[in-house]
Amino acid sequence: MNNVINKIVERQINSLPLINNVTCTLLKDFSDYKLDGTGVFIKIGSLHLLVSAAHVFDNFNELFIPIDNGNFLIKPEGQLIINNPKTKRSHDKLDIGILILDKISVDDLKNDYCFLAEEDILINHKLDFLNSYIVYGYPSTWSKKSQSRNSFHTRPFINFTKSIRTENLDKDNVLNIFVEYDRKNTVNFKSKKFSYGPNLYGISGCGLWYSNPLDYEKEANPKLVGIMIEWSMKNKKIIFGTRIDAVTEILRHKKLVDFPESDLFSFI
Fold it and tell me: Cys-Cys link to 105, which of 75, 101, 166, 240 (CB 3.0-4.6 A)?
C-alpha cells in the first residue's frame, strides 16, 4: 500500500510543471507590480483563453501579465466574457471570467506559457474524497517587486488536498467544488517541509486539478476540474472553486466552441 501511495504522490509532483506552464499571475498597477489574481490558459478548438475569477477581471483594464521571468509586463487583449453583478460581486453565484485572447496577445505569451489542451479539461467530474486534488495559485504575500532589478518575483502555493462536503456555506453545491485547506500542515516546497500556510488572497482564478489515483501507473496528465474563486470567511479550512463546466457551458451557449455538454447544469 505504501508503494502505491508513493507512486500517486510522485505522479502528482511530476504533474506540477504542466500546471505551472499554463498558470499566470495577474498584476494590477504597472508601477508597483501588485498581484491581484491568478489565471489559467486553455485552448478549446481554435480559441486561446485566459480564464480567471470574475472579481479579478472586474479590474481587467488595470491587469498585466509578467513575461521573461518578470522583467516585462504585457497587457492582454481580446473579447472579455464576464457577468455583470446585480448588486455586489460577492453576492453572485457565478464568479467566472473568460478572455478570448487576440492573436497579438497569444504571440506575446507563447514563449513563456503554454495552453492547456481541451482533452485535459474534465467536466461532469464525480467528487473524490481522497487527496487527489491540487490547488496551484499565487498568493500576494508570496509575491514581491525587486526594486534593484525593477522586476516581479513570486512562488506558487501548491496545496495537495481533498474535496469535502459542506452544507454550512451559502454556495451552490452543484456549481462549486469545496476542498480542504489545512493551513497548519502545508507543503513548503522552498524549505521542503510542512509549515504554516499563507494567506490565500491572490490565488483567485487559479486552477483546481484532479489526479485520478486509479491512474497512478499511467502517464496521465492532471485534469482541470475547476477555477478557484474564494477562501471561506466563515470557515478558514475551506476554499472553493467553480466547476470548469461553467466555462465550457458559457462558451457553448454563445456558440463559440464545439464541446460536449455538461450533465450537471447549463446556462440558458
Answer: 101
Domain boundaries of the chain, sorted by first residue: 2-253
Give me 129's grid cell: 474524497
d(CA 204, CA 53): 6
Distance CA 158, CA 77 (A): 28
State how far the Cα of 185 lies from the Cα of 196, in Å rounded to an integer. Answer: 6
Q: What is the mean pLDDT of residues 150-161?
A: 84
Strands 176-180 and 143-146: unpaired
pLDDT, tens digit, for every residue of 175-210? 999 999 999 888 777 776 778 889 899 999 999 999
| Non-local CB neighbours of 83 within 8 Å, separated by 6+ positions | 54, 92, 94, 96
H or E element, residue 107 = helix 103-109
What fold is seen in the domain 2-253? Thrombin, subunit H (2.40.10)
Report d(CA 180, CA 237) in Å as an integer: 6
For residue 73, the cross-strand partners are 66
| Residues across the chain | 268
Residues 6+ apart with CB under 8 A from 189: 155, 158
